[in-house]
């Protein structure tokens, strides 16, 4: 039994494909496997509904509404296993060729808690995500699961510390980071460094679930407010769990009151 103020999170690592039915089956199976450890939240990767198209391609035809089949599977799995779920999908927008890259949060009762549409699109390292997708509004999205607040951000958002700070200012105790972090020279180093930095500078937990395989680096992990890795998955499919403590968060923020000591106040444009 968990103590008051503790929350258990599972980060799941796998690779999606362009076969949406197979991805839905994988979601049901993976949530069921992670649920054996009785987590309060299961975090699945970015683009779990369907993988990105190749450069020059389109994911428009794959996109769904928030009451579509993919969300239906998330809601059913959450209610069946009694756990909240966060997962990535492509959501229809007003531009049928450029949907949103959306994180959906579902409560343990199967009800929708919130949706975050990726703000920073991956127009870097020779790729241009904005050719396929529409950016979301510049506004932090925080959802409550039990007595805890979780800030939602996606992959490339990690390179913009102002978003994580805005989420923490909005009350987030945990940054939830689904990703499909593309492999490449120094990219894995960047991934782990950013996750650790966002935890340390905001004195908060970070829970990151990444795609793996030939395209993406994997390395899903959970980092505590001092930058200590408390759970990790390597390169293979799997999941890792950790119990996050409100007492640990309070103790770290008392010892390192950097949020209180700020002199600059940054607000989103």
UniProtKB/TrEMBL annotation:
**InterPro entries xrefs:** C-N_Hydrolase, C-N_Hydrolase_sf, UPF0012_CS
Its domain of life reads Bacteria
Which residues does the UniProt record annotate as the domain CN hydrolase?
A: 7-246
- PROSITE patterns, per database record: CN_HYDROLASE, UPF0012
Q: Which Pfam families match?
A: CN_hydrolase
Record has Hydrolase as a keyword: yes
Task: Give the keywords, sorted.
Answer: Hydrolase
Q: Which GO terms describe its molecular function?
A: hydrolase activity
Q: Which family does it belong to?
A: Belongs to the carbon-nitrogen hydrolase superfamily. NIT1/NIT2 family.
What is this protein identified as?
A: Putative amidohydrolase
Naturally occurring in which organism (per UniProt): Kribbella amoyensis
């Amino acid at each position: 039994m968990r103590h008051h103020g503790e929350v258990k999170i599972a980060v799941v690592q796998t690779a999606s494909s362009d076969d949406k039915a197979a991805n839905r089956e994988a979601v049901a199976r993976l949530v069921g496997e992670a649920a054996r450890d009785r987590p309060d939240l299961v975090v699945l990767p970015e683009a779990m509904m369907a993988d990105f198209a190749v450069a020059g391609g389109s994911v428009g035809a794959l996109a769904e509404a928030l009451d579509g089949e993919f969300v239906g599977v998330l809601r059913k799995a959450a209610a069946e296993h009694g756990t909240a779920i966060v997962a990535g999908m492509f959501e229809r927008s007003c531009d049928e060729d450029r949907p949103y890259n959306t994180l959906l949060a579902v409560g343990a009762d199967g009800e929708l808690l919130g949706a975050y549409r990726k703000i920073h699109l991956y127009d870097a390292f020779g790729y241009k995500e904005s050719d396929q997708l529409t950016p979301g509004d510049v506004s932090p999205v925080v959802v409550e699961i039990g007595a805890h607040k979780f800030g939602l951000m996606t992959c490339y958002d990690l390179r913009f510390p102002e978003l994580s700070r805005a989420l923490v200012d909005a009350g987030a105790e945990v940054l939830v980071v689904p990703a499909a972090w593309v492999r490449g020279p120094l990219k894995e180093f960047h991934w782990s460094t950013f996750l650790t930095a966002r935890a340390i500078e905001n004195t908060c937990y970070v829970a990151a679930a990444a795609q793996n395989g030939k395209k993406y680096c994997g390395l899903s992990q959970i980092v505590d407010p001092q930058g200590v890795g408390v759970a990790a998955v390597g390169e293979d499919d799997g999941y890792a769990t950790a119990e996050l403590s409100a007492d640990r968060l309070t103790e770290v923020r008392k010892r390192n009151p950097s949020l209180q000591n700020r002199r600059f106040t940054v607000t989103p444009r």
